[in-house]
Design brief:
The protein is 21% helix and 28% strand. It has 7 helices and 17 strands. It starts with 31 loop residues before the first strand and ends with a strand. Strands 2-1-17-16-14-3-12-13-15 form a 9-stranded mixed beta sheet, covered by helices on one side. Strands 5-6-7-10-9-8 form a 6-stranded antiparallel beta sheet, with helices on one face. The chain folds into 2 domains: 239 residues, 3-Layer(aba) Sandwich (QueA-like), CATH 3.40.1780; 79 residues, Thrombin, subunit H.
Length: 345
């Protein structure tokens, strides 16, 4: 195979529709956990509440503390026509967002009423249905209004509307920093009980922020996966996390990324010489990437032909990952955002 052409078909698999998890499992940490060993190519089956048994004293577990906002805003035009504003990412500036706007005759200057005390004004077209939108609230408390009127943008493949359960469960228990339109799903399995066991074992815990955009659901549309582009997402990796990473490496312990978002954030700082970072990353982890920071990874089961599947396959080996996926399908694992987890050691 040529190094400059990798066909997208190599990252495809058939998933029976009934294995797409439509609702989360109760309690959170009762998801199944598939444990992959990269060195021995061994696959084990367990439950997430036993995660601490696979980690060691001195390991560093890094999580994403982003908070999902109810980014689907339904509104009307002055003519009465219906419009959906789906916030994608916050831009520099007070209440400026990049958003997908669905409706007829959307153009700059258009004012959309979401509620008596929340309006959206189209500033400019970025491309296609993507626009820059400014949000206004008379009292200035725009984020409060988004939480009041917005709907959680649950993934399209769930094929259902947002329900009460999603407000709580499409959010990690440690979510803090508002700005994501999709959850860092590998973190949805964590409970206070699991954290307590990890602390007792002497596992270090650190938090970074990566605000997940809608691009996370974007399938690879090009024939050659190397030509795919990943949408930029906002990242913050603070100084104290960088210090913890360096100490962990010096002690010959492992840095364990919880999710593809954390993996991309940590590898971004790795490429910048392991320095603190605040800004946007469009890092696309694909064959040829040399992992500098991440030693192990917790992740969910991803969509076929997605950049996330390419990322985990780059980390663990494509054939090994696809073998693991086949085994997961045989054993009835639950897939995607509300599905089961995988630990790659």
């Amino acid at each position: 195979m040529e190094k400059d052409f990798i066909p997208v078909e190599l990252y495809d698999y058939e998933l029976p529709k009934e294995l797409i998890a439509k609702y989360p499992i109760e309690p959170r940490d009762h998801s199944r956990l598939m444990v992959l060993n990269k060195a021995t190519k061994e696959i084990k089956h367990d439950y997430f509440y036993n995660l601490p048994e696979y980690l060691q004293e001195g390991d560093l577990l890094v999580l994403n503390n982003t908070k999902v906002i109810p980014a689907r805003l339904l509104g009307t035009k002055p003519t009465g026509g219906k419009v959906e504003v789906l916030l994608n990412r916050k831009l520099e500036g007070q209440n400026l967002w990049e958003a997908l706007v669905g409706g007829k005759k959307i153009k700059p200057g258009l004012e959309i009423t979401i509620a008596p005390d929340l309006k959206a004004v189209i500033k400019r077209q970025v491309e296609g249905p993507l626009f820059e939108v400014e949000l206004f609230a008379p009292d200035g408390r725009v984020m409060d209004k988004i939480f009041q009127y917005g709907k959680i943008p649950i993934p399209p493949y769930l094929e259902r509307e947002e329900e009460e359960i999603d407000r709580k469960r499409y959010q990690t228990i440690f979510a803090q920093r508002e700005g994501s339109v999709a959850a860092p799903t590998a973190s949805l399995h964590f409970t206070e009980r699991v954290f307590e066991k990890l602390r007792q074992k002497g596992v270090q815990i650190a938090y970074i922020t990566l605000h997940v955009g809608l691009g996370t659901f974007k399938p690879i549309k090009v024939k050659n996966i190397l030509q795919h582009k990943v949408d930029p997402e906002y990242v913050e990796v603070p100084q104290e996390v960088v210090e913890k990473i360096k100490e962990t490496k010096e002690r010959k312990r492992r840095v364990i990324a919880v999710g593809t978002t954390v993996t991309r954030a940590l590898e971004t700082v790795g490429l910048k010489g392991l320095k603190p970072f605040k800004g946007f990353t469009d890092l696309y982890i694909k064959p040829g990437h040399k992992f500098m920071v991440v030693d192990a990874m917790i992740t969910n089961f991803h969509l076929p032909r997605s950049s996330l599947l390419v990322l985990v396959a780059t980390f663990a080996g494509r054939e090994f990952i696809l073998k693991a996926y086949r085994e997961a399908i045989e054993k009835g694992y639950r897939f995607y955002s509300y599905g089961d987890a995988m630990l790659i050691l």
